[in-house]
Amino acid sequence: MVNDLERRTFQWFWDAGDPHTGLIPDRYPSPQTLSSVASVGFGLTAYGIGAERGYITRAQAVQRTLATLRYLMQSPQNDSPDKAAGYHGFYYHFLDKTTGLRFNRDIELSSIDTSLLMQGVLFAQAYYTRDTAAEREIRTLADKLYTRVDWQWMRRPDNRLSMGWSPEHQFIPNYWEGYSEGMMAYILGLGAPTHGLEPASWQAWLATNSQRWGDYYGQTFLNFAPLFGHQYTHAWIDFRGLHDAWAREKQIDYFENSRRAVYAQQAYAIANPGKWQGYSATTWGLTACDGPGDTMQQIDGQARHFLSYSARGAGRDYTLDDGTIAPTAAAGSIAFAPEIVLPTLRDMKARYGQQIYGQYGFVDAFNPSFHDGKAFWTDHEYLGIDQGPILLMIENWRSGLVWNVMKRNPYIRAGLERAGFEGGWLPAAPRTATAPQPTTQPAAMDGAHASAVLPAAPHPS
Q: Which of 103, 240, 348, 423 shows the smallest number of beta carbons within 10 Å?
């Protein structure tokens, strides 16, 4: 079943992506012309997975990757509200897939969506290592794209990163602080050889962790209610055995923290405090996803409120639950807790069948409590930022591919070391206190380092 799910999910990225520009829509199939730069980051990683699995040839992966990086490199970077794809190396959250420019004036220059894009860019840099003209160009373009991101410009005076910027309103007065997907932005910024962050920014991000640490449904962990916050950074970076100062103090690594978050969500579904239909030990998963719509419906004589796209979740920080289950919450957590995720995926597919499982795998979300008089609500679209964790984490569980490729990237290693991480697959002692110089060829892993790489979780081939 997992083999089939991975294949179908990969196909979404291949079919949805524009072969000439590499732009990938936010959702597909959809009449919208909205392209998500985060989806592009997941897609750049998906092509390497596809080549390794034999879904496409390496030549096809190279061609699509090169088209994407060339398009990104030549896309206009300036402060125009209408004639730019980005500014200071950052990209707008959404681009118009027909023009490649900012979708509209409501769209922000996004630090986190640029980070998701750059994870894919750095994966490409480290994956395509052959001495061919095309693969050399991929490495060169990837290096240029990453090293032109001006993390210092996005950093605020208190060392935190702003969530974004716009020509109309300047910097967004909200910042990345506390455990969340923002983790990857700081690691990328710390690893940058140009315009990079200082370790003080990592400490600023950690400052509020104590407010989220605690017990929830039988687990003690660093809380973040939607599961995507426990998945995104981990999709590219293997945190098993890695500890920064905070993790050393708590005697836990961030991988284990995510594993506990998954178990807490399952326990929440079993308890089902909202009394929603379908919740069980094998039907669970709250994260940001589509929903039935912002509406009320009478269920068993009680008015229940439902939501459209929302950051659903359950944790000490907050709970937002309208009975909508997102399969990506479980599937994107397979590397953390396969022993509970696999039965969940099998049971959901067996129970609901083609209502929730189709051409590109699981639909984005479904809600057994919300009925239109004929059937319960199911989504008819797939979202790139939800398909991505499914594909990448399945492959990490099966082979460790994405993790192992990223371990070769000197920028990722430098970012982790400058954040104070030690242990696991990192060298016994930090190699340098500063970020590496720009490079077009990722550093090869020496034999001692290669042998220290942790194995992937046990899995069927």
A: 423
Q: Is the dihedral of CA 121, 123, 126, 129 positive or negative?
A: negative
CA–CA separation, 139 and 440 (whole Å): 5
**So what's the pLDDT on residue 429?**
57
d(CA 229, CA 28): 23
* pLDDT of 432 above 80: no
Give the CATH class of 2-214+386-451.
mainly alpha
Q: What whole-number distance in Å separates Cα of residue 175 and Cα of residue 150?
A: 16
Within 345-416, strands assigned E span 357-358, 361-362, 366-371, 376-378, 382-383
C-beta of residue 305 within 8 angstroms of C-beta of residue 323? no
* Ranges of each domain in the chain: 2-214+386-451, 265-385
- Is the sign of the CA dihedral 434, 74, 167, 289 positive or negative? negative
What distance in Å separates the CA atoms of residue 337 and residue 266, rounded to the nearest whole number?
11
pLDDT, position 372: 86
Amino acid found at 61: A
69 class by beta-carbon count within 10 Å (0-12 exposed, 13-18 middle, 19+ buried): buried
Mean pLDDT computed over every residue of the chain: 93
**Three-class HEC string of 176-209:** ECCCCCCHHHHHHHHHCCCCCCCHHHHHHHHCCH
Name residues whose C-beta falls within 8 Å of residue 54's C-beta, 6 or more positions apart in sequence.
none
Asked if 144 and 172 touch (Cβ cutoff 8 Å), the reply is: no
For residue 450, is pLDDT > 90?
no
pLDDT tens-place string over residues 303-349: 999 999 999 999 998 999 999 999 999 999 999 999 999 999 999 99
The enclosing H or E element of 141 equals helix 133-147
**Token pair of 14 as six digits:** 């291949």
Q: Which two tokens stand for residue 27?
A: 């959702």
Residues 222, 227, 228, CA angle at the centre, nearest 5°?
110
First to last CA, the chain: 12
